[in-house]
Amino acid sequence: MRYPIYLTGFMGSGKSTFGRLLARELGLRFLDLDEYIEKTEGITIAEIFASRGEEGFREIERQALHQSKELGNAVVATGGGAPCHFDNMEVMNQNGLTIYLKVSARGLTERLMPGRSHRPLIAHKNKEELYQFITLKLQERAPFYEKAALTADTTGLSPAESVRIVLEALQHHP
Predict the structure, then answer these.
(1) DSSP codes of every residue in 56-92
(2) CATH superfamily of 5-163
(3) CA–CA separation, 2 vs 10, rounded Å?
(4) What is the pLDDT of residue 173?
(5) Is 34 helix (H, G, I), strand (E, B) or coil?
(6) Under 8 Å between Cβ of 109 and 127
(7) How far apart are the two ends of the chain, measured CA to CA in Å?
(8) How far is the C-alpha of 167 from the C-alpha of 144, rounded, in Å?
(9) Is the whole model's pTM more than 0.85, yes or no?
């Protein structure tokens, strides 16, 4: 198996929760790229968006992603948009194993509604606006997400069920 293992997917797909469980099952370190960025920058993602805009955040994210390839045996949860900018998806595929955690637009809407105020791109959207936003973004991002070595459709599954499915897939992956 190639390391690090990069988890990709839309915000709310469970990359952080799933990643912590997967790392524990595999006996690996876990890194949440957004948490790493907040720690190194000393401010929240929302504050980075507010002060530097999305473009500024994406550049910081790109640098953090390039640094993460030095982690070796680790599970890395990337931000939802990370694979879609610069050469990020290619860097992840060249330097580790990528897994796309796929969740339906309806499933993501249900997951994201309660905590959307903490996410700058969706903070002020009602349920229908959020669903439309997710549907559009999934269409835009699908070509990038689908470049992952493995895809796990985790719609309707608990994080533990998702980990079990991915562990089985990893046993059969070169």
Answers:
(1) HHHHHHHHHHHHHTT--SEEEEPPTTGGGSTTHHHHH
(2) P-loop containing nucleotide triphosphate hydrolases (3.40.50.300)
(3) 23
(4) 82
(5) helix
(6) yes
(7) 6
(8) 23
(9) yes
- Evaluate the CA torsion angle 8, 13, 17, 23 in order and state its sign: negative
| Spatial separation of the C-alpha atoms in residues 62 and 89, rounded to whole Å | 10
Question: Which pLDDT tens digit goes with each residue over 97-122?
Answer: 999 999 999 999 999 999 998 887 89
Nearest to 99 by CA among 168, 164, 147: 147
Measured CA to CA, the distance from residue 135 to residue 65 in angstroms comes to 26
Q: What is the pLDDT of residues 17-61, one digit of tens each?
A: 999 999 999 999 999 999 999 999 999 998 999 999 999 999 999
Place of tokens 């948490």: 35
Domain boundaries, the chain: 5-163
